[in-house]
Amino acid sequence: MSIGYIYCMTNPAFKDGLVKIGLTMRTPEERRRELASTGVPLPFVVEFAKRVFDPAEKEKCLHSILEDKRVNCDREFFLCPVAEVRALFEMYEGTWWETPAHEECKEERAREERQEERAREERQKERKLRRERELARKELERVSAKLEAARAKQYYKQVKEDIAAKYRQARRTVSLLTDED
Predict the structure, then answer these.
(1) Is 0.90 surpassed by the pTM of this model?
(2) Which of 22, 53, 60, 178 is the most exposed place for a label (fewest CB within 10 A)?
């Protein structure tokens, strides 16, 4: 028979009342850190956890009790008040897990916050760069259109001058021909 943790976690990015009920053979804090890299915008919060014998059986039982509150049949998320989940955890023998308050956890949280801030800054820089590129592209299009118009105008002027020169030449030729008669 194995020993592990059953846990209840929430995420500030999710709507109120949405909880994740799962198990881990490591510590809930380690599991929380693993879940931070699963595509969620904010880290999970361990609401509580309990070290129990046969955590897989306990988790399965909790999931079946809360089946009507499950939000997706393939996931372990439930729309349920945290207090109700805690009451269910009370029915199992085991040791409650205490959230470590030592410096290592504080440093980990600070590191995560710094990473989130850097990622936010990078996204802002990328958005600014995209806006600047778009403005530069529009300016290039505007200048190109003006240049094309100027070239067309210059071409028109040149054609007009060529026609005028040919017209003058033709008049001179006609004038010389009429003078000889």
Answers:
(1) no
(2) 178
